[in-house]
Amino acid sequence: WQKFPVVVKKLRKFDRAGKIAGPGYLQGINLMKNFYRPSVLLQLVGHCNDTIVTEVHRLLDARDLETRFKEYPLYNTLQTRMQLCVSYVDILRTLHSGHDGKIYVQCDANHIQKLAGQFLFTEDFRLVLSDVDSMETILLNGTNKRLIKCTVWGEVTGSFPAPEELWPYKGGYDASKLPLYDEKIEIWKIPDVCWYFLGDDVSTRQLKRSLKDIHKQCKNRNARKRPTAEQVYKTYLTIYKDMIKSNFSGFKETV
Fold it and tell me: A GO molecular function for this record (predicted)?
């Protein structure tokens, strides 16, 4: 397109959630076109019916994190890995900002690989959100919020979803009876996502210890007591800057 490489994607007609080119698809297109901070989303070049054209991100999505680091070993550093944690929470705080009276919540990220597949790597190993067609919108009216529940994929289980997303009653699952919740379901998942980006290498241990307090707050079973994405972002950014300032002294361990 005008000498720039682009991705042309023809959408599937159906998936487990039903017809693709429905309200969710159209909502996603509108969000990509009109979002107030487009740099955190995949850039839309154009669309027609079930075909969309977007910018190219050659490093693909975050499911292949370790493969990308093997291909680009100079980026496989504590700084880059922590930068991914910061980038992820930066996107969340943008979605949760309440700009134009709306908070956006991802509703099809019930395990870490599914969530990772919704983010693309930029060439400098930051993130952009590419999957926006399963967003639920929390409408704000002053201090009041219209709460949501993510039920399109059926019952969720496991430790990755927030406690309030799980079926709380005895008997069979009934989506209509599931209690409502808000964007704090995404705060619960932040520690798991950051751990995924940091990896398991021994060199990350001290950095993980420095994140322990904020991550403990994120995992509070009382959603109201969890920090906001903005608060997590500020804490992450402070730790990230301290890493750079100290040249990683005190943050990196070796065997």
Answer: ATP binding
